[in-house]
Amino acid sequence: MSEFNTDLPSIRKVQSYTKDKNAVAIKLLTNDILEGTILWQDPNCLCLQDQNNQQILIGRHAIAFIRPK
Amino acid sequence: MSEFNTDLPSIRKVQSYTKDKNAVAIKLLTNDILEGTILWQDPNCLCLQDQNNQQILIGRHAIAFIRPK
Amino acid sequence: MSEFNTDLPSIRKVQSYTKDKNAVAIKLLTNDILEGTILWQDPNCLCLQDQNNQQILIGRHAIAFIRPK
Amino acid sequence: MSEFNTDLPSIRKVQSYTKDKNAVAIKLLTNDILEGTILWQDPNCLCLQDQNNQQILIGRHAIAFIRPK
Amino acid sequence: MSEFNTDLPSIRKVQSYTKDKNAVAIKLLTNDILEGTILWQDPNCLCLQDQNNQQILIGRHAIAFIRPK
Amino acid sequence: MSEFNTDLPSIRKVQSYTKDKNAVAIKLLTNDILEGTILWQDPNCLCLQDQNNQQILIGRHAIAFIRPK
After folding, report:
1. pLDDT of res. B4
2. Does residue E21 register a pLDDT over 80?
3. Which residue of C has its CA nearest to A56?
4. ipTM for this prediction
5. pLDDT tens digits along C1-59
6. Is the pTM of this model over 0.90?
7. How far off is chain E from F28, nearest CA to CA, in Å?
8. Taking CB atoms and an 8 Å limit, are D61 and B66 in contact across chains?
9. Is A45 part of the contact surface with chain B (CB cutoff 8 Å)?
10. Is the N end or the C end of chain A the one with fewer CB atoms within 10 Å?
11. CA A22 to each of CA C8, D22, E50: distance values in angstroms, whole numbers, following the listed order
């Protein structure tokens, strides 16, 4: 992550997914697709709660893309 | 992304795709090819609107190349 | 790892896994899944103790995600 | 890209390919091989014109190697 | 490698493998597993001596994990 | 590449391969193995001359390891 600046649209978009508890799908560089709601984000990671209510700590560098589920 | 400087030709090229709503294909390091129009870019991500009008938040580090569709 | 700041939720989450000796599963970009308890973390690596009590030094850049086992 | 310094031999080599319109093959981390002539380079990307005259914007981080075609 | 600081436990762990000539297995992002003893480390690389006494210069960024053999 | 400092053993090792025109094998993250002699190195790339005397510009970030051939 080169910049964790909350003015950036990419950070704000994840913030809105988090606030609105939108269901998202996160595609990783491993080709895993993780589904759930984003609990929080920081400069290094996103924390996703999946359908089993498990919290998954995802490295930003490993994320290919995020889309609404 | 080492530099997000809007004087750079690579940033300007994505800006022109965005302004002109050109249809593009984005090849990712996962070998996914995402097609659509670029809504915006920032130092960390591009936001692509696909043919289902879904907004896909793509990490720059995960992009191999972008070409016109 | 862009930031090793112990105020960050992602660092604190790994600290709590470590302190509580939670069993975790760590998915790597190689698609390996390593299971065990986290002994410590630093800006570059995590040290995991597996079920054979072997200590595995994992590069942060190679971690896709961490979840409870 | 750690350094975009035009004194570096790697930057100069790409500049000479560009100036002389040499046909090159670019192998990506996705295992794609893109062939064409390099139009320009900047700290983040190379722009390649392929045999269909399409301009392909390639992320430097995604390039494994470049060789003459 | 974000930090090459010999106070870090991850650097010290590799130093101890080196000093004690422990046999280690190094898993790379290519899924290669290289076995041998670590001769030295620096901010960019580790140098491993394999069972044929060949010295292999390994990029830190390519290492997924290191474990005792 | 975090540091291009010619005091580092990893830089000096590549310098000695270059000076002595040692035949080396370079394993890439793509799983390609490129063989030849190293002509030069800079902070971003190595230039390898293969058995067809072709010069291959290799991104350091794409190199998993280098060993004598």
Report:
1. 83
2. yes
3. C67
4. 0.95
5. 556 888 999 999 999 999 999 999 999 999 999 999 999 999 999 999 999 999 999 99
6. yes
7. 8
8. no
9. no
10. C
11. 23, 49, 51
Q: Residue F12 region, left (φ>0) first, then alpha (ψ -120 to 50), else beta?
A: alpha
State which residue of chain E sits closest to C60, comparing Cα positions.
Answer: E64
Mean pLDDT of B12-24: 98
> Token pair for residue C54?
């072997």
- Closest-CA residue of chain C to E24: C56
Structure tokens at D32: 């794609």
DSSP-derived secondary structure for chain F: -----TTSHHHHHHHHHHHTT-EEEEEETTS-EEEEEEEEE-SSEEEEE-TT--EEEEEGGGEEEEEE-
Cα of E65 to nearest chain C Cα, Å: 4
Instruction: Using a CB–CB cutoff of 8 Å, tell me whether B69 touches chain A.
Output: no
User: How much is the pLDDT for E56?
Assistant: 98
Q: Do E59 and F67 touch (CB under 8 A)?
A: no
pLDDT of the residue at E1:
55
**Residues in CB range of A67: below 8 A, 6 or more apart:** A24, A25, A27, B54, B55, B56, B57
A23 interfaces chain B, CB cutoff of 8 Å: no
